Amino acid sequence: MTTFFIWIGAVVGALLAVILIATGIGMLLPVKHVASRTEAFVVSQQRLWDLALAQFQTTNDGSYAIVEQSPPHRFVTAIVKKDLPFGGTWTYEFAPSRAGTSLTITERGEVYNPFFRFVSRFVMGHTKSIDDVMAALRKAAEAKS
Question: Sign of the CA dihedral 21, 23, 28, 30?
Fold first, then answer.
């Protein structure tokens, strides 16, 4: 029975060590970051604008708001919920391209909690959410073209 408790203690100790090390590294990282992705879509600028706006509206739980827009060229969303461990803006920029429309999404983010800062930078990556949005838009554009 004591071997079991030694193993449990070792596992708990190792987990605590990982959390402490990750938090320590997170404390060394800057709170603010900028991440950006650009992708081309084979739809018109207006169509991609409509798809992006619809996606934002259907996935928004009230934590975000559109703070600036210039249809069909650009809109900016911001985190408006104040009790989250992160904040910042996303800028969507739509431009004509050879195949249709180019979309650039730029995140100007802030991660306040050092542990989450570590996870955001080294585990998930700052572009994970942008990549997910681009994939959803690609799927929507292909389904409706």
Answer: positive
Q: What are phi and psi of 2, to 5 degrees?
A: -70, -30
122: domain CATH number is 3.30.530.20
Q: How confident is the model at residue 6 (pLDDT cuts 50, 70, 90)?
A: confident
Q: How far apart are CA 36 and CA 31, in angstroms?
A: 17
CA–CA distance, 87 with 31 (Å, rounded to integer): 10
Output the pLDDT for position 144: 63
Residue 131 and residue 138 in contact, taking contact as beta carbons nearer than 8 Å:
no
Task: Note down the domain range covering 69.
Answer: 2-143
State CA 101 to chain mean position distance. 21
Nearest 5°: the CA angle 137, 34, 32 is 130
**How far is it, in rounded angstroms, from Cα 30 to Cα 70?**
31
Helix H or strand E segment including 77: strand 74-79
